[in-house]
Write a structure and sequence with these properties.
16% strand, alpha+beta, L-fuculose-1-phosphate Aldolase, 42% helix
Length: 240
């Protein structure tokens, strides 16, 4: 694990909080580039408070490997099972971003309405936990069985909604998954606004492919802005 990757993972936590995707809850992880059977994720604290020292190592069975016996999030199985099912995925975000949740509990599907969100495609799946655990649950993904079911629901897509719970986004890098998590929330807001005015014109499948590929070549641009904004926000908070 490189120092830069750990630092980027910390920055990603701060960015996702600052951009309104995460709050006191939610998490982001990154696969270990030197050991694909391990990933890194914070111990169980709010994303805005994460430092490099808080990052733990977890294997694909969800077992934490930490000499200080610290705990990570109970929903680590979201990450472990997706990494197990998707070798192409190197970073995962689970969030409860507020504008996304209504699309997981209504008959209105989340679909891309702008070129920034073509990565969504037109088949964003919805994970229904009742199908795997019955009518009584916390809605949390707390074991391998539920994590595997979520990974299967996600399939080859970049984003899956979780009914009444939020969403999961995946990417080939930390920067890509942060971009996707942010613009999933942005798209949900724009789609809701569009639906209030009339029937939106959604991106075609071909437009989804082309716009996603185009935006992937510009990930550094928003990343640099989000880093600066998160640092400025943290600085302002520290001076209060």
């Amino acid at each position: 694990m490189t120092t830069q990757l750990l630092q980027d993972l910390v920055l990603a936590n701060h960015i996702l909080f600052n951009e309104g995707v995460l709050d006191g809850f939610g998490h982001i992880s990154a696969r270990d580039p030197s050991d694909p059977g391990r990933f890194h994720i914070s111990r169980m604290i709010a994303p805005a408070l994460v430092t490099v020292d808080d990052i733990l190592e977890v294997d694909l069975d969800g077992v934490v490997h930490d000499e200080r016996n610290r705990r990570t999030y109970v929903e680590r199985f979201i990450h472990s099972e997706i990494y197990k099912a998707r070798p192409d995925v190197h970073s995962v975000v689970h969030s409860h971003s507020p504008t996304v949740i209504p699309f997981g509990v209504t008959g209105t599907r989340l679909r891309p309405v702008c070129h920034m969100s073509g990565f969504l495609g037109n088949k964003t799946p919805i994970y229904e936990i009742r199908e795997f655990i019955g009518e009584r649950s916390s809605l949390l993904v707390t074991n391998q069985k539920l994590g595997k079911a979520l990974a299967e629901t996600l399939g080859a897509q970049n984003v899956a909604l979780m009914r009444g719970h939020g969403s999961v986004a995946v990417g080939a890098s930390i920067k890509q998954v942060v971009y996707r998590a942010v613009y999933t929330e942005v798209n949900a807001r724009l789609q809701a606004q569009s639906l209030a005015l009339g029937e939106p014109v959604y991106l075609t499948d071909g437009e989804c492919i082309e716009t996603a590929e185009a935006m992937d070549t510009h990930l550094d641009r928003p990343w640099q802005l989000w880093v600066r904004r998160a640092r400025a926000s943290a600085g302002a908070t520290n001076t209060d």
